[in-house]
Amino acid sequence: MMDFRRILKILGPGLLFASMSIGTSHLVLSTKAGAQYGWLMVIPILLANVLKYPFFEFGVRYTAVTQNTLIQGYKFLGKKYLWLYAFITLISTFTILAALYTVTAGLLINLFDFQDISINFVALLLFGFISAILIIGRYKFLEISLKFIVSILFVALLITTVVVFVKGQVTPVEGFVSPEFFDEVGILFIIGLIGWMPTAVEASGWVSVWTVEKSKSMKDGPSYKEAKQEFDLGYVITALLAVFFLIIGVMTLYGTGRELSSSSVQFADQIVSLFTEHIGNWGYTIIAIAAFSTMFSTCMTAHDAVSRVSLDILDKLKESDSNQFKSKRAYGLTIVVMTLVNWLVIVAFGGHMGNLVALATFVSFVFAPILGWMNLKTVNSQRFPIENRPNKAIKLLTYLGIVFLSVFALYYLFLVVIA
Question: How open is the CA angle 37-99-191, to the nearest 5 degrees?
Fold first, then answer.
């Protein structure tokens, strides 16, 4: 067992993963799952977290053992795998950040009553502020700040969860009938929940690049065992927070018959308002801090991750050994480019952002089982040390996860393309 000081020292990639994962998948989907379907939704939430675990852990495993990113592992498998990951990342580049910043800007406007300021301008301010933090502070400051933010978030949500339990579940309206769990609407909701819980599978590459940065920031970088323990801690926090949001949804909304908005921004505002109705106005600050911290930290981590992964892909696609994509200048320039591109996407497609997010969702869902298989293939390749390859239990869990995701991906493909 590691001592507490060593644990604090190596905290990083797992914490960033938790911070990145608890965006709309937790704040919106987990809460909505509890609000609409009740306690039964804890099953798909926990199932998704368990069955998708190996895909993300392989990113940490590969990097901690080889000191190379998972993206380098894709290149070793063959350029076609690298190009596939590059395609998925490209779709994410023009959709995920724009969507996250739009939701966060809208949430900020609603929570602090900035109704006279346009959402585009607030999003630009957020882009500028977060970009400055990332360019000036880079990985080390990101890690330190998120230790603080995630701690506040975890405490705020823990307090919120305990309070709603003490207060008791809201009284159902007379004649309330729970929605069907296995009709088309229910299955589509479950697919969305599982697809983004705890996050999309391509984020395994994000964890990998953070693991590399963590090793660079330490003289005595974490061993594979330590890196795995640190990631496991972050993963458990991620799963716990999903359950916390589910509990909040069940205790404050399930059975009320309230119509919940399909807009992430309006939904987040509804959650804050309905929660304060349930326990009193004094709870507004707690849930507002939790909601905003959730989205702000997700914007920071996603912005950093997409930038780093994009640079790493470009580096692996080139044939020369130059370090042009590994410099501080390249990182800062990429952060700025991501800001400008995604803000322009918000301005140009703000009213149709749902269509862009739907495209990213479609790509993520369809390619998730393929990426899961690629990750397993990478840590089972001849280049990877035999003693560090996954054991039979992890392999079995991985195959179950691939089958699990494949079934949902095929059904989703059928509904979207054929039906």
Answer: 35
